Amino acid sequence: MRKKQKKTVPSESNQKKVDPLKITMARIFLILNAVLWFGYGIYTYYDMAVVNNNKSSADLLTLFIFINAGLLLFSGIKFGAPQRWVYYFALIVAAFNTLLSLLNVVDLYFLVSFIVDLLILWAIFPLRKKYFLNS
């Protein structure tokens, strides 16, 4: 009779390493998109409140835009930590933002934001294994 071979986990040096450039790219795209949304929030508030004298609507809309930008910024800052919730949080925020941008893609700003959102998703998806192996 043959002895059963022990299943061994490959050593850390033999495991497929994740390129830190991919993580950095995802973080840069998340932070870039957050900066774009902060700028859009300032522009929207100026246009609605100052130019069109519609302060109550401008306050509410700008609040939602800043929350979106804040979530993107938070995702970009925390994305370097190899934890599952960080991966899921960044993925959900990017997917939601992609949907928001897709609904208004006729405007040039939203087209640029949509492209950046697609780049974020393109950078995040291959990192799934890194975030599930380390948690």
Note down, in words, how this protein is organized.
There is one protein chain. With 135 residues, the protein is an all-alpha fold. The chain has one domain. The chain has helices at residues 20-51, 55-78, 84-103, 108-124, 128-133. It is elongated.
Give the total of domains: 1
| Spatial separation of the terminal alpha carbons | 38 Å
**Residues in β-strands, percent:** under 5%
Helix content: over 70%
Shape: elongated
Mean pLDDT: 85
- Number of helix segments? 5
Largest sheet: none
What series of H and E elements makes up the topology? HHHHH
Quick one: how many beta strands? 0
Per-chain topology:
Elements: H1 20-51, H2 55-78, H3 84-103, H4 108-124, H5 128-133
Helix pairs in contact: 1-2, 1-4, 2-3, 3-4
Quick structural gist:
By secondary structure, the protein is mostly helical.
Task: Sum up the structure in keywords.
single chain, mainly alpha
